[in-house]
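Comment thread on ticket #2218

A.B. wrote:
> Attaching the input chain for the structure job we discussed in standup.
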Amino acid sequence: MPIIVQKYGGSSVSNVRRIKAVAARIVRAKRRDDKVRITGHWW
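C.D. wrote:
> Ran it. Output below, let me know if you need it in another format.
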């Protein structure tokens, strides 16, 4: 099982639509049964 590290910040979390898209990518990775680690810079 791979470990997937995803980093989000700046324009990728700049509005609600983009935050929902990030959440969808996280859910897809988790459903593939990967170990998912998220890091972010939110402001």
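A.B. wrote:
> Thanks. Noting for the ticket: The mean pLDDT is 89.
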